[in-house]
Amino acid sequence: MFSSVLNKRLPAEAGISVLCVSPGIVQTNVARDLPKLVQAAYHLIPYFIFSAQEGARSTLFAATDPQVPEYCEMLKADEWPVCAFISQDCRPTNPSEEAHNVQTSYKVWEKTLEMIGLPSDAVERLLEGEEVKCRYGQEQ
User: Fold this and answer.
1) What angle do CA 24, 25, 29 make, to 5 degrees?
2) DSSP code per residue over 108-126
3) What is the 3-state secondary structure (H, E, C) of 11-74?
């Protein structure tokens, strides 16, 4: 949802493609803090869980396939309400129905900027070459 708003705010002449990528369910240590029963179930379904290498496929595809920027431009030109979405099997896919909710997308955008301490015009200012600081990464 955040990506869809970012996609709308970036002018086409910026030459920046915005897309969401799903790695699928990847075998990581994400379950380490979950209850033991959940951890056990997580390890019983390796057939459905990708290795880290397999999970990286969709991200690498999105970063290297020459047709991805064209696909992103096509969606932007058609004023599609969401940015491009690449599924875990490296295919352009329609995201969830909730991702199409423009009002919710803008709420996510605004709340994210608020949480990290960026002004609402941060994208525009960055494109103009201004330095924009957020709450994080600054020496106190």
Assistant:
1) 135
2) HHHHHHHHHT--TTHHHHH
3) CHHHCCCCEEECCCCECCCHHHHCCHHHHHHHHHCHHHCECHHHHCHHHHHHHHCCHHHHHHHH
Both tokens of 64, joined, read 């290297």
Which residue in the block uniquely carries the two structure tokens 């608020």? 114
Q: How far apart are CA 4 and CA 20, in angstroms?
A: 9
Cβ-in-10-Å burial (0-12, 13-18, 19+) of 77 comes to: exposed
Query: Cα torsion for 114, 117, 119, 122, to the nearest 10°?
Result: -110
pLDDT tens-digit readout, 70-116: 888 888 877 777 888 999 999 988 888 888 888 999 999 999 999 99
Query: Distance between terminal CA atoms of the chain?
Result: 31
Place of tokens 């920046």: 16
Q: How many residues does the chain have?
A: 140
Q: Which two tokens stand for residue 33?
A: 């803090």
- E strand or H helix that includes residue 75: helix 67-77
Query: Which residues have CB under 8 Å from 6's CB, separation 6+?
Result: 18, 83, 109, 123
